[in-house]
Amino acid sequence: MAISMRTAPYRVHRDPDRCIQCQVCVRQCANGVHRWDDEEAEVVSEDRECVNCHRCVVYCPTGALTISRSPLDYAANANWRKPDIDQIYLQSETGGTLLTGMGNNRPYPVYWDHLLLNASQVTNPSIDPLREPVELKTLLGRKPDSLELKKGTLAEPVPPQLELEVPVMFSAMSFGSISLNAQKALARAAIDLGIYWNCGEGGLHPEMDPYTGRVIVQVASGRFGVNMDYLNAGAAIEIKIGQGAKPGIGGHLPGEKVGPEVSVTRMIPVGSDAISPAPHHDIYSIEDLRQLIYSLKEATEYRKPVGVKIAAVHNVAAIASGSVRAGADYLAIDGFRGGTGAAPLRIRDNVGIPIELALAAVDSRLRAEGIRNQVSLVVAGSIRNSADVVKAIALGADAVYIGTAALISLGCHMCQKCYRGKCNWGIATTDAYLSKRLNPEIGARRAANLIQAWKHEIKEMLGGMGINAIESLRGNRLALRGVNLTSRELDILQVKAAGE
Amino acid sequence: MRRRVVWKEEACIGCRLCEVYCVTAHSRYPGDVLKAFKRDPDRPVPRVVLEEKGPVSFALSCRQCEEPECVKSCLTGALGVDPARGVVVVDEQHCIGCWTCIVACPWGAIRPSRGEQPVAIKCDLCLGRLGIPACVGNCPNEALQLQECGKEG
Amino acid sequence: MQYVIIGNSAAGIGAVEGIRRVDRANPIILVADEPYPTYSRPLISYYLEGRIEETGMGYRPPGFYTENGVTTRLETKVERIDTELGQVVLDTGELLPYDRLLLAAGSRPVVPPIKGIDTEGVYFFNRFDDVRALRSQVRHGCRAAVVGAGLTGLKAAEALAHLGLRVTVADISPFVLSTILDATGAEIVRGHLEESGVHFLLGTPAVGVTGIPAAVAGMKDEWKNLKEKYRKVLVRENRVDSLVFTDGFAVPVDVVILATGVRPNLEIVEGSGIAVNQGILVDERLQTNIPGIYAAGDISEGWDLVTRERRVIATLPNAYKQGEVAGINMAGGNAEYPGGMQMNSVNFFGLSIATAGLSNVDDPALEVVTRVDSAHRVYRRMTLRDGRLVGFICIGDVGRAGILTALIRNGVPVGGWEERLLEGDFGIIDLPVEVRRNWQLA
Question: Does C147 share its domain with C252?
Fold first, then answer.
């Protein structure tokens, strides 16, 4: 076999003064980086397989391990950077599409970091959330154009709503793309927090039955796991049209990952590939989408909101408008930084638009058309902290979806190798040995802690602006100012420049 | 009050950190893993047994039985129940290493110590050393817990 | 309620603890012919060796009797038991009335058919007094012969070898530990002991002990005078000189240890109407045929759950457990003895040996699987009956053998995975899931 020109991207450093030869690292690395050498009677490490997931580093009881980027580099070149060259070597060896996991990691502008929040000074009092209530409760779903009262009560029932204690939900992540334990962790956290989790396009595993009260069930192009029980189990139904990490691309769960558990959940034979087509083959127009939305509403007797999830692409505003008119009760928009369990690298890194601009465009368009009340907007695609949440709501969102942040709370170290199915943190894997590493109780506690922390921070920021209910912030772009943005970008965001 | 360490099979990941911390807790440097392994010439053997087969694993230690076979079988009276602490204890000075307890223990939770004249060692719940057993306190996936059980447990 | 316990070893102590689990109040009188507080008999070889001292011999801590409200009558022999009047007659003529009586007087050594065993320098190896006397007589370089290659004999041989004596072990059987080991296991153990300096004369019965004659007929007077003068040097007079075998072969020795087994001390029940066979017969609550009178330990004939018959199981764990059950029942509790089995664990010069149940029985009705690694002195033999483990031998690696013991006790079907039992790393995880989930004491 010809020599591979690829070199190890990371270096494993083992401090011999600290290593106690306990072999915990050996057992923790599913990539086989560390092994016990009988002849040398010590643990040795092989850099080449290291993905820099830090599992061994965190688990080493004496702190003997560190990982660094390999110092090896090519001749300085601002155009041909290291990844560009390495990727060519890899493709020259394999002849295949490059795969990756998690969200776009390229240095495109992050608009959240160019938006700043307002605060009260002198002329309007700020609120201390430790002393006064600040309401974060959010209702997702179609709101009537007007309310008619009869004898002090509503004459017509309000369309079904999802009630959130915090305007944050866990994004769609299927069992298969993540472990059942990861799903359980998020589901339990969602229940504890009074928010929702989303089972993705993988069906519902029987062990998830206790958590269906707060699940959004997805119907995607593969229709995996969809039946009446599934639709009725969910608190809401979400039609997945696209995903921010791979707009225009379907999904492919390789047969090797379709073990007995996944097989039960997806309702496909063991070992068969689970292919979600790029389009829904029954949706070629807004009218077709409407048919599906109303089929699902009929199936669930109009008791559940039906949402539509789309990727943020160039003409997102028009698509959003059409979807609302097709009957969507909420619209989930996934920006180009959204995560994935597996996507072609070129698609992830080059397709779609930033969620901040897409959100502003959609909110503006729906307002202009007078149909903003008919739909709730949920945005996704790299919401990293509570400030991003507050900015998203000021830009017009009702709530946000978090996927990557939720997984990081469970232990994800962003090595971006989810597609290999050998996640050392027990998250992006269905391997029984690896999945155990994520104890759902710990995961649920951690994910809930994260959202609780954000909840406190959101209240602080709202209070600082003198706002005592998140409702009052929604679409209030005067709460935002832009820095380092072009006037065109400010126009699209409908945000004033800082100082204006 | 009988106390013992119980395991959750579904959460045990077979990392063996329980063994590392058990050894440390019973070494000359109970709070220092590095020194326990690098400096203690009489580094003890772990009192917890990690059993592993395929994806299934669990860290087994003395069940602190209500009717302890080991205590009843002990030829010298070195094994006994400490009712105050709710734990089966070995008087290591009194043990002669006949291993009758090993042959009696249905869990295989007793093992010989290292050294010239090995004696029976078993989980003592780290009592007198730490607040909670070292394995419980350091299990990274919370697969081990200290259980306090009444008559029935 | 007056409890009387005859016997101060494992069964007697087990009974005290059993009674006190139910009844903290009523008095207990414990009668024993030895002068010592309860001590661990297996420790006598370690005492001989000097590894432990007298203070370390206790089977229970010094405060045991006081804490448990026990009045001891040590150095006291029982003459007989008057079941009619409910009293124990001591050899002093004193009467001890009882409401509940436990017979736990244990066993005593079998006296082998060897001539001249009353010669000085011949010892049994069962009681503390035996080794106290022996310890003062043995020193580095002495020659010792042990008659009987059983557990007791070999432990004595090991202790004597550690003390620097030249030790020969003799047995009628061609194999050591013939009651618990098979030929393969016995050869491994013999090899190990020989390597450690113990000599063996196996398969030949010892028939006599000869001593140094006190006087030789026709000895000249001047020699007699000389002998008187050097008395101190010649204290070996009438002391053991050699051990003689059937074929006339004689081994020169300075001490002889007799360890040819034990039998129950049944004299105390003679004429009492208490039913006996090899031992005292007991029911599952360990009561004899006379209500209120119980028996436990080496003296009794309890149920063997492996051989499925009543027999004397002369092991300490069995004695303790029987004593405890008897004690609970004496105090009005309700405990059943589930049956015991032969179970031994011992090591010689660092080689561990564990056996249980039908460890060495060859019978067409039994299935036997073995794994032997003679070079490393590792041997495992599993005996199955109807797909269930009924006995084992583990030599060299006894780690976790208790799981095997429990498999026997619980009668767990092991058919199909019996070969796995031969591996040294056999563990709880190897049990079928449903067995593992219910794994408890039988």
Answer: yes
Averaged pLDDT, B111-126: 93
Q: List C-alpha distances in Å: C116 to A219, C147, C211, C241.
A: 98, 14, 8, 11
Q: Is C441 on the interface with B (CB under 8 A)?
A: yes
Q: What is the ipTM of this complex?
A: 0.95
**CATH code of residue C174:** 3.50.50.60
C253-287 pLDDT, tens per residue?
999 999 999 999 999 999 999 999 999 999 999 99
Cβ-based contacts of B51 with chain C (< 8 Å) = 427-429
pTM: 0.92
Chain A interface residues (partner B, CB cutoff 8 A): 18, 20-24, 27-28, 59, 61-62, 426, 431-433, 436-437, 439, 441-442
Long-range CB contacts (within 8 A, 24+) of A488-496: A489/A111, A489/A357, A492/A357, A492/A360, A492/A361, A493/A111, A493/A115, A493/A356, A493/A357, A493/A360, A493/A395, A494/A360, A494/A364, A495/A115, A495/A360, A495/A395
Boundaries of domain holding A45: 10-96
Q: Are residues C126 and C234 in the same domain?
A: yes
Residue A161 lies inside a defined structural domain of this protein: yes
pLDDT tens, residue by residue, B6-23: 999 999 999 999 999 999
pLDDT digits (tens, 9 = 90+) for C290-305: 999 999 999 999 999 9
Residues paired with residue A496 on neighbouring β-strands, in sequence order: A481
Question: Could you tell me the residue range of the domain that residue C20 belongs to?
Answer: 3-108+262-330
* CA–CA distance, C140 with C155 (Å, rounded to integer): 17
B2-149 folds as Alpha-Beta Plaits (3.30.70)
Would you state the pLDDT for residue C232? 55
DSSP code string of C54-83 = GGG-BSS-TTHHHHTTEEEE-S--EEEEET
Q: Residues C141, C234: one domain? A: yes
Residues in chain A where the model's pLDDT stays below 70: none
Q: What is the per-residue pLDDT for C442?
A: 42
Provide the residue type at A370 as one letter: G
- Residue identified by tokens 């392994």 is B37
Q: What is the pLDDT of residue C217?
A: 62
| Residues whose CB falls within 8 Å of the CB of residue A108, separated by 6 or more in sequence, listed in order | A336, A337, A354
